[in-house]
Design goal:
Helix content is 14%, strand content 48%. It is mostly beta strands.
């Protein structure tokens, strides 16, 4: 299974009255590999992955963003809480395609 490791800054975007969504931009260098793994993609061109930050590992999807020109990884509250992450934190991520 192909694995990538990168460091990125945790960012947020407001989503109305529901609060903010937290996400990490993926490096453009791995965009071609993601597109290659996108066989049988799910909704919105998403690609299933397993992500690890610190001691937290979870399965989710990465999603393409026209604005970013690359994919992004959503980071849910249980992971942020477990790893002590806030907007602006720099995270090292291990990412594997599922």
């Amino acid at each position: 299974m192909t694995e990538y490791e990168f460091t990125a800054e945790l960012r947020t975007v407001e989503i109305g009255s529901e609060g903010a969504a937290y996400w990490l931009p993926l490096p453009e260098e791995i965009e071609d590999q993601i597109r290659g793994a996108a066989v049988g993609t799910r909704g919105f061109g998403s690609v299933r992955v397993e992500a690890t930050i610190g001691t937290s590992t979870w399965r989710t999807s990465v999603f393409p963003s026209k604005e970013l020109g690359t994919y992004f990884l959503p980071v849910k509250k249980p992971v942020r809480d477990a790893e002590g992450l806030v907007a602006g934190s720099h995270c090292t991520v291990r990412l594997r395609f599922v």
